[in-house]
Amino acid sequence: MFFFDGQLMEGDVISLPVNDLGLLYGATVFTTLRVYDRSLDHPLTNWDAHCDRTYHSIKIFDWIMPNWQRIKKEAQYLTNYYPVLRVTVFPDGKELILGRSLPDNLQEKQQSGISAKVIIDHHNNRSLPNHKTGNYLTPFLSLNKAKKDGFQEAILTDNNGNWLETSTGNLWGYVDGDWFTPLISEGILPGIARNVIIRNANFSVKENVWNPYFIEKLEAIAHSNSVIEVVPFHTINVNEKILNFDPYHPAIQQLKNVFMNLI
């Protein structure tokens, strides 16, 4: 079941005009959140932060504001059935709220890590990277390419080959006692989980440019988003060169503890 434009619907089909802007141009803004204890008010759900980021994009795009009170009521209803919600807003103010399960084998991935491939392609620059829009073709293509080559995640780069983010989250790298994450100004999404870590960390967090010199120094690496929290990497393919990392590195627990301490 899901909500579309104020209506609770069942199945997996909605009707859109052939000239709908979301259909033609990917003109939507969306956010995906994990609901803890079936509560939008749980501190880890971060409902207000997700709404604020979406509101900010809609205001900048000069779209019609949705009915936020209705959206929260619909989202709260769906928390009875789904642990993950995706809230999409169209330019005309219509909302689409979908629910889904947590990713398969999430706990195993959080513990043992996953593999990734760095996608170096100057044609793969993400559209409006500071906004979570429906034009998500670049991350989609990058992730598909990585999976086709046998990897579980993709790492996106800029025109200089600097690492920016993964196809689904923000990057974290540990070097000499400090955690680092790429600068927002480099063209990455200001992730909600990223902000949670920066705001609540009781350890050093720095923002920088992830150039090849910095990447060579990495001792541990992970990525974060609002659904998976923190998942480390054990293998990363860079130009067919394999980089190996310890997903059990003690520093990884520092990132995980940020979320554990908010439960």
Shape descriptor reads: globular
Portion of residues within helices = 25-40%
Distance between the termini: 28 Å
What is the subunit organization of this protein? Answer: single chain
Number of strands: 14
Category from helices, strands and their pairing: alpha+beta
Total count of helical runs of at least 4 residues: 8
Approximate strand percentage: 25-35%
H-E order = EEHEHHEEHEHEEEEHEHEEEH
Low-confidence stretches: none
Summed over residues and divided by their number, the pLDDT gives a mean of 96
The largest sheet, given as strand count, sense and whether it forms a barrel, is: 9 strands, mixed
Overview of this structure, please?
By secondary structure, this protein is an alpha+beta fold. Helices cover 29% and strands 28% of the residues. It has helices at residues 21-25, 47-61, 68-78, 106-112, 137-148, 192-200, 212-216, 250-260; strands spanning 2-4, 7-9, 29-34, 84-89, 95-100, 114-119, 153-157, 163-166, 170-175, 178-182, 205-208, 220-225, 229-238, 241-244. Strands 6, 7, 8, 9, 10, 11, 12, 13 and 14 form a nine-stranded mixed sheet that branches. The chain has a five-stranded antiparallel sheet with strand order 2-1-5-4-3, covered by helices on one side. β10 (178-182), α6 and β11 (205-208) form a beta-alpha-beta unit. The protein is globular. The mean pLDDT is 96.
Sum up the structure in keywords.
single chain; 263 residues; alpha+beta; 9-stranded mixed beta sheet; 5-stranded antiparallel beta sheet; 8 helices; 14 strands; 28% strand; globular
Question: Helix and strand layout, with pairings?
Answer:
Layout: E1 2-4, E2 7-9, H1 21-25, E3 29-34, H2 47-61, H3 68-78, E4 84-89, E5 95-100, H4 106-112, E6 114-119, H5 137-148, E7 153-157, E8 163-166, E9 170-175, E10 178-182, H6 192-200, E11 205-208, H7 212-216, E12 220-225, E13 229-238, E14 241-244, H8 250-260
